[in-house]
C-alpha cells in the first residue's frame, strides 16, 4: 500500500487586510476540514501573528493538525509600492494619503482622473521592485512544490510567477461576481448595464447615462492598455527574468482553462448576472470572531444598553476635521429626533491633528452631553472584532465605507447598512445595498464626501423611518440565506481540497 501523502497547498496573498482576511479565514477552514493538510502561507511581513493564531486555534479543534508554514516575501508591500509610485510620478495627493482624485466629489472629469490614478493598482511597483518580488515568489513556489497554489486576484507579482512557472493554481478574491463575470455577459452588458469604475452610477445604469458608462468602461481599458508604466515593467521583466508580466486583467482575457476563481459572495448578494463556470461563489468569507464577551466584556455591557448606531469607515479612510464634524452634526440631528436616542459607537481615524472628545473641540461642541454621558463613544481603536460587534444583536445600523468585508459582515449579521462609498469597488457595494433593500447610500449628492442634512435623513430613514422595518426584515432574510448555504470559508476549503486531487 502506498504511503499516505497529505495535500500541500500554498496560499499567496498581499498583506493588506482587505485581501488577507479572506485568506486567513480560508486557511482556518482548510485545516478544520482536513487536519492533515500541509499548509503554507506566503505574504509580506506583518501577518506572522494572525497566521500563528490560525494554527493555534486549529490545533485546539484538531490536535494533530500541522502548523502553518509562514513564508515572508521580500520587497515592498502593495500599499508601500503604490505610495512610492504615486510619489515618484507626482500624482496629486493629500500628504501621504490617497490621490486627490479619489477624494473629490464625483463628476465626469474627476472620474477620468480617478480611473487613471487607479491603473497603478494593477502594477503597483517599479521595474526593479517588481522583479525582486516576482523572483522571491518564484523561489517560494519552487521550494514548496505545492499540489495547488492559491493566489490573491490583486497580487500581480504572484499571478506573474504562477503563469510563468505553469503551476496548478486557483484564485481567491474578497470581491464579488461582477468583477469576473461582467466581461462575458451577453449583449456586451458589461459595457452598459454595470456601473463603470468610479462612475457612481446606479445598477442597472440608467438609460440616459449608458453612453457615458460605455465611454468610461472603454476609457478604462484604453488607459490600461496604453499605460507606459505597465509597459516599462513588462519590458524589464522580459529582459531581466525572461518572464511575461501578468495582471488581474489576465484573469479576464488570458485565464488558463483549468483556473477557478473563488469569490466571497453569493448570487443573492450581487448584481444579477450570468455566472461563468470558472467563477465559484462560495458565500461571504469572513474570519470567525471571538465572542465579544471574551474580547471586550465591558463593551458588550455598553452595547447591551443600546440600540446602537455603529460607524466604522475602515482602516484606510482617514477623516479630516470638517468631514468628521459633518458626520457629528448628522448624528446630532438623529439624537434630537428620538424620544429614546440610540447609542453611537464611532471608530474614527483622524486625518490631521485635531481633538475629538476634549471639551472645547468642535466635535465635542456638537455631541458633548452625549460624549460626557458615555452615550456616544468616539474611539480610534476597538478591541473587539467588528464582526463580533455586529453579531451582538444590538446594532441598529452599520455605517461603513463600502468595503467588501464590511458589506459581507453586515449581511451575515442581518444588520441594515448605511454606506458612504469612498473609492473603486466601494461604489458597487453601495449600489448592492440599495438594490437588495438592506440599507441606503448616505451621500448620493456629494460622494465620496457627505453633507449633514442628507446623511442625517438617511440615518433616520434606515434606523427609525417607515421603511426601517422592511429594511431590517430583508437584511435578516439575506442573513438566513447565507446561514442556510453554510460558511463561505468552508465552501472555499472544500473546493480547494478537491482541486488538489484533480
Give keywords.
502 residues; alpha/beta; Rossmann fold; 2 domains; seven-stranded parallel β-sheet; six-stranded parallel β-sheet; globular; Glycosyltransferase_28; EryCIII-like_C; hexosyltransferase activity
Q: What this model shows, in words?
A:
By secondary structure, the chain is α/β, with parallel strands linked by helices. The protein has 2 domains: 8-97 and 121-187 and 224-283 and 486-500, Rossmann fold (3-Layer(aba) Sandwich); 292-485, Rossmann fold (3-Layer(aba) Sandwich). The protein has helices at residues 17-33, 48-61, 78-88, 100-103, 108-118, 127-144, 156-165, 178-181, 189-192, 210-225, 228-240, 250-253, 292-295, 297-304, 321-336, 362-372, 386-390, 404-413, 426-436, 452-464, 468-485, 488-500; strands spanning 8-12, 38-43, 69-72, 148-152, 169-173, 261-263, 279-281, 308-312, 343-347, 376-379, 395-400, 417-419, 439-441. The strands form 2 sheets. Strands 3-2-1-4-5-6-7 form a 7-stranded parallel β-sheet, sandwiched between helices. A 6-stranded parallel β-sheet has the order 10-9-8-11-12-13, sandwiched between helices. The two termini are 21 Å apart. The mean pLDDT is 94. One of its GO terms (cellular component) is endoplasmic reticulum. This is Glycosyltransferase sdnJ. It comes from Passalora fulva (Tomato leaf mold). One of its GO terms (molecular function) is UDP-glycosyltransferase activity.
Amino acid at each position: 500500500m502506498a504511503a499516505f501523502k497529505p495535500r500541500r497547498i500554498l496560499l499567496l496573498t498581499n498583506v493588506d487586510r482587505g485581501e488577507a482576511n479572506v485568506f486567513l479565514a480560508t486557511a482556518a477552514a482548510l485545516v478544520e476540514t482536513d487536519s492533515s493538510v500541509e499548509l503554507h502561507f506566503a505574504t509580506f511581513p506583518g501577518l506572522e501573528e494572525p497566521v500563528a493564531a490560525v494554527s493555534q486555534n486549529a490545533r485546539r479543534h484538531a490536535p494533530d493538525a500541522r502548523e502553518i508554514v509562514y513564508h515572508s516575501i521580500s520587497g515592498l508591500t502593495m500599499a508601500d509600492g503604490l505610495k512610492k509610485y504615486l510619489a515618484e510620478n507626482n500624482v496629486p495627493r493629500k500628504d501621504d494619503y490617497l490621490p486627490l482624485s479619489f477624494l473629490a466629489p464625483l463628476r465626469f472629469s474627476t472620474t477620468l482622473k480617478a480611473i487613471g490614478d487607479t491603473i497603478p493598482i494593477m502594477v503597483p511597483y517599479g521595474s526593479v521592485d517588481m522583479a525582486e518580488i516576482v523572483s522571491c515568489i518564484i523561489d517560494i513556489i519552487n521550494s514548496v512544490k505545492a499540489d495547488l497554489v492559491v493566489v490573491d486576484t490583486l497580487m500581480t507579482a504572484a499571478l506573474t510567477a504562477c503563469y510563468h512557472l505553469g503551476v496548478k493554481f486557483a484564485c481567491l478574491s474578497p470581491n464579488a461576481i461582477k468583477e469576473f463575470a461582467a466581461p462575458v455577459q451577453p449583449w456586451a452588458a458589461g459595457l452598459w448595464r454595470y456601473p463603470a469604475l468610479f462612475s457612481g452610477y446606479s445598477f442597472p445604469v440608467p438609460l440616459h447615462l449608458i453612453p457615458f458608462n460605455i465611454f468610461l468602461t472603454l476609457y478604462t481599458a484604453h488607459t490600461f492598455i496604453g499605460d507606459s508604466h505597465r509597459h516599462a515593467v513588462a519590458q524589464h521583466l522580459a529582459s531581466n527574468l525572461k518572464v511575461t508580466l501578468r495582471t488581474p486583467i489576465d484573469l479576464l482575457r488570458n485565464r488558463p482553462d483549468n483556473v477557478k476563481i473563488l469569490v466571497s459572495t453569493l448570487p443573492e448578494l450581487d448584481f444579477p448576472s450570468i455566472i461563468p463556470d470558472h467563477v465559484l461563489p462560495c458565500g461571504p468569507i469572513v474570519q470567525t470572531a471571538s465572542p465579544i464577551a471574551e474580547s471586550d466584556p465591558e463593551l458588550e455591557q455598553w452595547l447591551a444598553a443600546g440600540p446602537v448606531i455603529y460607524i466604522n469607515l475602515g482602516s484606510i479612510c482617514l477623516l479630516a476635521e470638517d468631514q468628521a464634524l459633518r458626520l457629528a452634526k448628522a448624528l446630532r440631528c438623529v439624537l434630537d429626533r428620538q424620544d429614546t436616542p440610540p447609542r453611537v459607537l464611532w471608530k474614527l481615524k483622524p486625518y490631521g491633528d485635531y481633538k475629538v472628545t476634549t471639551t472645547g473641540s468642535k466635535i465635542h461642541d456638537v455631541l458633548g452631553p452625549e460624549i460626557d454621558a458615555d452615550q456616544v463613544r468616539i474611539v480610534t481603536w476597538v478591541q473587539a472584532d467588528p464582526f463580533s460587534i455586529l453579531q451582538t444583536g444590538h446594532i441598529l445600523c452599520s455605517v461603513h465605507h463600502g468595503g467588501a468585508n464590511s458589506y459581507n459582515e453586515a449581511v451575515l449579521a442581518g444588520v441594515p447598512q448605511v454606506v458612504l462609498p469612498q473609492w473603486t469597488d466601494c461604489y458597487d457595494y453601495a449600489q448592492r445595498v440599495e438594490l437588495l433593500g438592506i440599507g441606503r447610500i448616505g451621500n448620493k449628492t456629494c460622494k465620496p464626501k457627505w453633507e449633514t442634512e442628507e446623511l442625517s435623513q438617511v440615518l433616520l430613514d434606515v434606523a427609525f423611518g417607515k421603511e426601517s422595518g422592511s429594511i431590517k426584515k430583508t437584511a435578516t432574510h439575506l442573513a438566513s440565506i447565507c446561514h442556510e448555504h453554510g460558511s463561505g470559508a468552508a465552501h472555499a476549503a472544500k473546493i480547494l481540497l478537491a482541486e488538489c486531487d484533480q
